[in-house]
Amino acid sequence: xxxxxxxxxxxxxxxxxxxxxxxxxxxxxxxxxxxxxxxxxxxxxxxxxxxxxxxxxxxxxxxxxxxxxxxxxxxxxxxxxxxxxxxxxxxxxxxxxxxxxxxxxxxxxx
Length: 110
Description:
By secondary structure, this protein is an alpha+beta fold. It is built from 4 helices and 3 strands. A 3-stranded antiparallel β-sheet has the order 1-3-2. Strand 2 (about 40) and strand 3 form a beta hairpin. Helix 2 (about 60-70) packs across helix 4 (about 90-105).
């Protein structure tokens, strides 16, 4: 059995924004369809809002990033945002984008 590994911290927004809880619920439902073994740790905080820690089997790491990119969830990912800002992560990010395009070509314009 593969070991569960921390992958990410997802930010969904604050209580005063009606879409925040919906985004959190939608994300959790969608990721469960693709990664049935996903585990969450509720990281809600009155200052930071609705957040979830994401744990997946270690072998699913690359597939997680490809899925996140292909389905438009990257902007809510703390790790993803840090990756976007770090010049040293450019090659890794391109790898995930290319993997997303190969796994989910229907989600990208030709």
